[in-house]
Amino acid sequence: MNNQFQLHPEIASSIAFDVDVLYFFVVAVSIFFMALICVLIFVFAMKYRRRTEDQQAETQTHGHLGLEITWSAIPLVLMLIMFAWGVWIFFKVYQIPDGAMEYYVVGKQWMWHIQHPTGQREINEMHVPINTPVKLTMASEDVIHSFFIPAFRVKNDVIPGRYTSLTFEATKPGKYHLFCAEYCGTEHSLMIGSVYAMEPEDYQDWLGGGVADETPEEAGARLFSQLNCDTCHSDQAGSRGPSLNGKFGTEEVLASGERILIDEAYIRESIVNPRVRLVAGYPSIMPTYQGQITETNIFNLISYIKSLPSTEGAQ
Amino acid sequence: MSVSTEAAAHGHEVHDHPEYMRHQFDDMEQQNDAANLGMWLFLLTEVMFFGGFFLGYSIYRSEYYDSFVIGSQNLDVFLGGLNTVALITSSVTMAFAVRAAQLGKKNHILIFLVLTLILGLVFMVNKYIEYSHKLHDGLIPGYNFLWTGLGDGQSIQLFYSFYFCMTGTHGLHVLIGLVLIVWLLIRVWQDKFTTEYYAPIENFGLYWHFVDLVWIFLFPLLYLIGGLAV
Amino acid sequence: MSTIAQQGAAEHRMPRDHFLNAAYTIKSWLLTMDHKRVGLLYLFSISFFFLIGGTFASLIRLELATPEADLMEADQYNVAFSMHGIVMIFFFLIPSIPAVFGNFIMPLMIGAKDVAFPKLNLMSWYLFIFGGTFGVLTTLLGGVDTGWTFYTPFSSTYSNSNVILAGMAAFIAGFSSILTGLNFMVTIHKMRAPGITWFKMPLFVWGMYATSLIMVLGTPVIAITLALMMVERGLQIGIFDPALGGDPVLFQHLFWFYSHPAVYIMILPGMGVISEVIAAFSRKRIFGYDFIAMSSVSIAVLGFFVWGHHLFVSGQSIYAGMVFSFITMLVAVPSAIKVFNWMATIYRGSVSYDAPMLYALGFIGLFSVGGLTGVFLAIMGLDIHMHDTYFVVAHFHYVMVGGAVTAFMAALHFWWPKISGRMYPEGWSRLAAFLIFAGFNMTFFPQFIVGYLGMPRRYHVYPEEWQLLNIMSSAGATVLAVAFIVPVIYLLWSLKNGKIAGPNPWRATGLEWILSSPPPEHNFPTTPIVEEEPYDYGEIIENPVHRDEEEKEHEHA
To answer: Which residues from B are below 8 Å from A256, CB to CB?
Structure first.
């Protein structure tokens, strides 16, 4: 048990220090104003206390425009500074760096499933290398959860029916708390775990020790044929579904004439609810897979589809 | 203080006010103004109330436009149009009733209120016919919702959810209006209103026009998405 | 007005006829059209709900004294914090100052014989009780475990508790507050006595006006949102359930569109009370009247455009977040204006330290902490870390308890002599004020620290390194709980044994202090005509000895 009295959680990610600086700046401003208010109230209260029952106030004033402007303008300017500073940090947190390691996270009453880029899976534990940007793509199987690592100063809701993401770069090896921050039912407070930040070499060792049966792409490929996706989604002319080769990140024309970017969210929707946005020229025959496929498997399918090379050139 | 509270023995024994004037007001003008402002504020809360529906509707309509078109084309434009005509006409007859109240013509008030009542009933009967068709076709959202046609049944169910929530709440308002008309008719019959005191009729008129106005938004938004399909 | 019967030696007597002894039957209370009696009906009802909400709060703090689950199971704990929130917000804080003192005092302040629609006013109370019955029923049947926020899809699909019952409770209570707001707005517009122009209204009335505006515009939206949530739960129609094509975050937008302004429903009336109390106990004209009045209105209006600051980490677009963050920070300006104007009012005043003033000074300090910590949460970069931690819990308790409840206590002590005609014991009332202030800070200050360290809210077990801070908090809560019992005892005691107050014990300005205490059944025999501005403390104000009409006539003869 760590009985040491702390004022801030451990600084263990690239942005944690920035957040703390802003935090302590606002704390300082607050302390200044609180001290000002308390001292003035105390002084006024002593100096102008009523000494006799009939004592009147020394003056009666309506107000003073100059003072009003002053004490509106000073807070306003301070607010503008803090606002801009806060926005700057927010952008920094949500910036997705190139070449980030991509983890998949699934929240489920009441546990966290984590899948490494190389396919290793963990429950309520997450091992990450330090000094490496990590991007989490997160989904929920049921209600809204929120993925929160105080030592990294990052948090984002995990919402059913859509993907949210979170990026961070751990800087200090250690074991840190992982919490669910959005109330999610009975064992909300037990939906916790640990994040292990490790030196990159240690992380490689750890990976070696783990049993990575298959990578997400391999798992996806297996599912793709298991679920018979490949009977319709093929390259052959006249196939009943559009080919998926090299489609990730490109634009496609829908039956309604709209154009849509093929990203994780669109692929996910096309699996669980295929009839909402059909690609032009194909019949509405694909059955829904809602409730028949887990979020983890959807992740794997997406990884597989992402990995499919373009076949344009070959034709 | 120079506030004058010194009053003559002017208690509540003195009845120099008409019985329809409430004790908290100084004169009828104040009472009528208060009632009027109260009604407008009430309508403002109604606007916010329906606003929640319209917001939700717009969001899902843009998200699932194709399904909303399909759902919309399954509604009966003829019945909806008939209802639009019925409600607009009833607004006109209601306006005449208010005018008659201003002029103190009891018979005219009665005639126009009855006409408004009949048109309102026509609306409700149509609504009943429409709803029972939907029930028959299994289009009531919920566990028994059944969609066999083209398109994505799930988002078409969303369209019907909004259809029933919005027209249902609106229908409830019409129904409450009809009850109030009956109440007004009784009061008119009993000669409770005068040319000085007819605020209840006037304010009910405002309510009725509001209900009409909501329908004028609901009709195109629900029945005519993607153009008039015949 | 005569100055004959002034000096301290004068014996105050209870007036012969007043609204309390006009009739004694139960019917005369339950069917009353008198705004003062309706105000008291609310006072009894919300005190009852405060007791229920407070009991749940005590259970929560007791459980959190240790990091393990020992007093309650997880489900029981979830019920405890959910019921605490629902009862305190919908059945205590929202009706507290508006429905009790807004009803009792506001019509007196503007020289009206009653509110504009007395029947509607009584109906509001019945709706409140009807909603409250659902609330009590929910508790008796095992409670609800969704938190007071009812977030979907947990509430609409996954929870196994009495969600619909609790939703109905809030839904019905909402209509009560819509009707109250409507009634007050019409009253303030149309019932002011001649001479009370908009900028001569007491600031409490301005506070009530701003509050009513929010009640009228915001409450219908929460009503429709809760209704959709309940329909969704009953029928599974899919509006908020992603598995059926719906959007769970839409619920949050609609919910906070009302529920953030609702925070201002709780605090604006409190600010109005503080303006009255500070002026009266400094015997000084309020500094910057126009600015205080307009800051109330601007807080009410801005309050409708800040809801998105609850969704910075809920997948809301960054640009939407920036707009919400910016507008939220603007709210700090009118709040600061108020605080500084109150301090300028004390400056060179004649300051006395009766219980209402102690609460008011406490309010300035606690509200400032609540407001400043609100700035932390409005800053996007900080909110990522602080969202849904104990920092948020501490912040809103500083605003709601440190602000709204402290102001409620100030109002209760300020107008108690007017309501009951008697004074409460000075020493005890000051002691209670100190205890509440101390207990409150002990309870909630440690939560700022544990919150920044990362403890999420709504956790019933937590890592053991945070036990020390939690024990401090629980110890403070014990002091706070005891401190709230003290006023109940001495106020009840004073009803029979208190010194008779006379019409104006604080020697304050304002129409309510001209009337006898307790006021007559029909307030003003004739509508008063007001010539001077509010807070005219330029001349000495007396506490005249009350004389009944008969005696006056006798004297004349």
So the answer is: 65-66
